[in-house]
From TrEMBL:
Name recorded for this polypeptide: Phage integrase family protein
Organism encoding this protein: Nonomuraea pusilla
Pfam families documented for this protein: Phage_integrase (PF00589)
Entry GO MF terms: DNA binding
Compositionally biased region (Basic and acidic residues): 315-327
Length: 454
């Protein structure tokens, strides 16, 4: 290895002449120009700072690579986990919904602070999560300016972040799994939360396999059992048709106007099994509402609620393609006369938004999940007994959709048709609603009773 002490450090150049803007650190070794690109200015400055410290301490620089000896071993190990996580988020940004971006980031808020070296000056975990959430895990144009504390926290993270390659070590990977098994407050995390975060980690490592960082996914080699999550609908949450009617009537009595505006939205969840985000984007052109008989809804889009920083528009609600469907794909749902009448009445009383949406706030906006959940809880208190209110019966608006699908299955509608209307695959439908399908229990009990000869 040929080395030299002839080192001249330059500065950081911002390059915006490409799809993803970069920061380029520049320096010269033995008269030869060197450069290295980074996603953030902080990473580029930290790199030059490391070079400067090496030069001050009298280290020799390798002429072939332009790096001091102390950095050669680290450089050979590839990107840090922080760098790779940032690249992962940006690579998926354009193709992901706001909720998916938020899920990815939420997992990384646990993973990145856990995958660091024990070096002095570690900021608090909340400070680390803050700079990740508001800056490091966002595209360049979406980042808010760094405060002094945030800049210090990011510099520490950039220096302390372990290499991506270190996740090939079982010890480190087990520690990572331990980190996602607890909440930010340190208490045991819910099973669904743990499983979602592990799924993000697994997918991130799959990407590393594609880039030849690992020969296979190291997470597959770890014997670790994720907590069991409930994946089936609890029959105790499912209302009967009579209870559903009582609840819908109670909704209209909540507040001065809000309840009346939301009654038909909740009815769409029960009579058509719409998801809340599907009802939120339902438009007049999607509905065939005859004066009598059955009507038809042809769903085109959904309007999920997310956090502004993760959305394309910077708004809370965005219109997107239907869940698990290709862009511009639709779903047809025949609707019974009772829902046809409710929708016709709603449109007559409240009109539609400028873009044709049937359900709108008094100012033409979209109801937040907290707003319609409040109305729903008030309606439960009006329509149900105290014992039922305290139970899980229709505890969430989404339970109306569960009640609709359960009703269809128990009415004898073939599973493929139910799946088609609900927007499920048949296998998911039967797995999720397995406990809600009646019809065989009395027959089986009768057989057992006869066998017992009592």
């Amino acid at each position: 290895m040929s080395t030299t002490y002839d080192v001249k450090l330059g500065g950081v150049q911002y390059r915006a002449d490409r799809a993803t803007p970069i920061y380029v650190a520049r320096w010269r070794v033995a008269g030869k120009a060197r450069s290295k690109s980074f996603r953030t200015k902080g990473l580029a400055n930290a790199f030059l700072s490391d070079l400067r410290q090496a030069a001050k301490s009298g280290e020799e620089f390798d002429i072939a690579t332009g790096l001091p000896a102390s950095m050669l071993a680290q450089e050979s190990r590839g990107p840090s986990f922080l760098e790779f996580a940032q690249t992962y988020v940006l690579r998926r940004w354009n193709a992901s919904a706001a909720r998916t971006r938020e899920t990815d980031a939420y997992a990384l808020l646990s993973l990145i602070p856990a995958l660091v070296a024990d070096i002095p000056g570690r900021p608090g975990d909340e400070e680390l999560r803050d700079v990740l959430r508001n800056h490091a895990l966002l595209p360049e144009k979406r980042r808010s300016p760094l405060t002094g504390e945030q800049a210090a926290a990011l510099r520490w993270l950039e220096k302390a972040s372990l290499s991506l390659a270190s996740l090939g070590e079982a010890r480190i990977l087990r520690g990572t799994l331990d980190a996602i098994a607890v909440t930010f407050a340190g208490s045991p995390a819910g099973a669904n939360t743990v499983r979602r975060k592990r799924a993000v980690l697994h997918h991130l490592l799959e990407h590393a396999v594609e880039l030849k960082v690992f020969p296979s996914n190291p997470l597959d080699e770890i014997k670790w059992t994720a907590p069991k999550a409930v994946t089936v609908v609890d029959p105790r949450t499912v209302v009967s048709p009579a209870q559903a009617r009582q609840l819908l009537e109670a909704v209209a009595k909540v507040g001065r106007k809000r309840g009346r505006r939301l009654k038909a939205l909740f009815a769409c969840m029960y009579y058509a099994a719409l998801r809340p985000e599907e009802a939120a984007d339902l438009r007049l052109r999607n509905c065939n509402l005859p004066e009598s008989g059955w009507g038809l809804i042809v769903l085109e889009r959904a309007r999920p609620q997310g956090t502004k920083r993760w959305s394309n528009s910077g708004e809370t609600h965005e219109s997107r393609s239907l869940k698990h469907r290709a862009d511009k794909d639709t779903r047809e749902i025949p609707i019974p006369p009772v829902l046809v009448a409710m929708l016709r009445e709603h449109i007559t009383e409240h009109g539609t938004a400028e873009d044709g949406r049937i359900f709108q706030t008094g100012t033409g906006g979209t109801y937040s999940s907290s707003a319609y959940s409040y109305v729903w809880q008030e309606a439960r208190r009006l329509a149900l007994t105290p014992a039922q209110v305290a139970s899980s019966l229709a505890a969430r608006p989404y339970d109306l959709r569960h009640a609709a699908v359960s009703l269809w299955l128990n009415a004898g509608v073939p599973a493929p048709e139910v799946a088609k209307r609900a927007g499920h695959s048949v296998d998911v439908l039967l797995r999720v609603y397995a406990k809600c399908i009646d019809g065989e229990q009395d027959h089986v009990n009768s057989k057992i009773h006869s066998a017992l000869d009592v």
